[in-house]
Design a protein that fits this description.
Number of domains: 1
Radius of gyration: 16 Å
Distance between the termini: 7 Å
Strand content: under 5%
Shape: globular
Largest sheet: none
Order of helices and strands: HHHHH
Number of strands: 0
Structural class: mainly alpha
Length: 130
């Protein structure tokens, strides 16, 4: 891969990681409120799930940026993002048009983010072959 492309790949990984790093830090700083929100969503053992979410978001972000095991880490982050979309952005279960629109938009953003993780996986595999 050309050096310009490699630099662009680093920037892309940093940008996707930034979203999850900030989300993880916000969960950490508002732990009690996040537990309450997760409980409202009906997530079992919300305290445990919040801790796991924080570890995945912050830890995964750092690992994505430094390029450690990108196929495994991006796969975990993609699976986490699928779960988030299906649990927290259930647009199909909402009747209010404004809430429906917001949830659909957030669901589709998560789908797009999954695409970014898939590109990280493709890039990592391609780099191994080069």
């Amino acid at each position: 891969m050309a050096s310009n492309d490699r630099g662009l790949a680093y920037v892309a990984r940093g940008l996707i990681a930034l979203l999850f790093l900030i989300a993880g830090l916000r969960k950490l700083l508002a732990f009690g409120m996040t537990v309450g929100y997760f409980a409202k969503l009906g997530i079992p053992m919300p305290e445990v799930v919040v801790v796991v979410s924080i570890l995945v978001e912050i830890g995964g972000s750092i690992l994505i940026v430094i390029g450690y095991r990108p196929v495994i880490v991006a796969s975990v982050m993609a699976a986490f993002t699928i779960g988030s979309a299906l649990i927290a952005h259930q647009f199909w279960a909402v009747s209010d048009p404004q809430i429906y629109s917001a949830q659909l938009n957030n669901f589709l953003k998560n789908v797009s983010i999954i695409g970014a993780f898939l590109m990280i996986i493709v890039d990592a595999r391609r780099s191994r072959l080069s």
